[in-house]
Amino acid sequence: MMGAEGVVGTAAYDGRLGLYVGGGANFLRPRFRVGFTDGLGSVDNTEIETDLTRAVVFAGLTAQVSRTLDLSAQVYSVPKDATTLRVGAGYRISLR
What is the pLDDT of residues 61-87, one digit of tens each? Predict the structure, then answer.
């Protein structure tokens, strides 16, 4: 498996909002041989091969809602396969 991605990002509202978007491609070339022997001694030597190239798109944002709290949301999509969404929160602790 191999992949390549590019991303651009910026900040707005005095750095309180961070945004990014990107895209890329994943290349999957798995190969394996089954090699299963059943109870009668027959061996399955099936070879499995696939060549998958998939486009990827993603975007996200982080909003600083107070001095100590930020919220974020991200989407990562391989349109031919799946899309994932993530939300998160961060809390800054000052150790003085």
Answer: 999 999 999 999 999 999 999 999 999
Report the Cα–Cα distance between both ends of the chain, in Å, rounded. 46
Q: Looking at the whole model, is its pTM more than 0.70? A: yes
Give domain status of residue 81, yes or no. yes
CA dihedral 26→49→80→3, nearest 10 degrees, is: 0
- Check: CB of residue 60 under 8 Å from CB of residue 76: no
Segments forming the whole domain that contains residue 33: 2-91
Q: How far apart are CA 8 and CA 6, in angstroms?
A: 7
- Cα-to-chain-centroid distance, residue 43: 38
Pairing assessment for the beta strands 31-33 and 43-44 based on DSSP bridges: unpaired
- Identify whether 62 is part of a domain: yes
